[in-house]
């Protein structure tokens, strides 16, 4: 059930990117989709019976692989920087054009 909710989040973000005409809404939809993908990997990586990867000689349990956690943390940082870059691009377009509607921007900038 949780996997279905996470995949629905990815799908909602994807639909927003396709069908929204406002550039800001497209950026927000991409963030929703990115959040869904990160949540999907988190759901897959969380399994019962595995402990945190902290070495403890007194406690003999199986440890979760720390590499997916590091990859997801890197994905969060890269996603944040891409979102910041897209917002700067949107600010530049808003400065040059009076709107953020993609149809009007294409219409005004097509020779």
From TrEMBL:
Report the Gene3D superfamilies cross-referenced here: 1.10.287.3510
Q: Name one Pfam family in it.
A: Oxidored_q2
Its cellular-component GO annotations read:
plasma membrane
Q: What is its subcellular localisation?
A: Cell membrane
TM ranges are 6-25, 37-55, 67-88
Membrane topology designation? Multi-pass membrane protein
* InterPro entries in UniProt: CPA3_antiporter_subunitC, NUOK/Mnh_C1-like
Would the keyword Membrane be found if you checked this record's keyword annotation?
A: yes
Q: Which domain of life is it from?
A: Bacteria
Q: Which UniProt keywords apply?
A: Cell membrane, Membrane, Transmembrane, Transmembrane helix
Q: Which NCBIfam families match?
A: PRK07375.1-5 (NF005620)
As for family, the record states: Belongs to the CPA3 antiporters (TC 2.A.63) subunit C family.
Name used for this protein in its record: Cation:proton antiporter subunit C
């Amino acid at each position: 059930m949780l996997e279905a909710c996470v995949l629905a989040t990815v799908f909602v973000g994807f639909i927003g990117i396709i069908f929204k005409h406002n550039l800001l809404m497209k950026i927000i939809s991409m963030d929703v989709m990115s959040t869904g993908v990160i949540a999907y990997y988190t759901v897959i990586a969380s399994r019962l019976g595995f402990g945190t990867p902290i070495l403890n000689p007194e406690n003999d349990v199986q440890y979760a692989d720390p590499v997916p956690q590091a990859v997801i943390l890197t994905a969060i940082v890269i996603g944040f920087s891409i979102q910041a870059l897209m917002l700067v691009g949107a600010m530049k377009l808003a400065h040059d054009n009076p709107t953020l509607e993609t149809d009007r921007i294409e219409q005004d900038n097509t020779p």
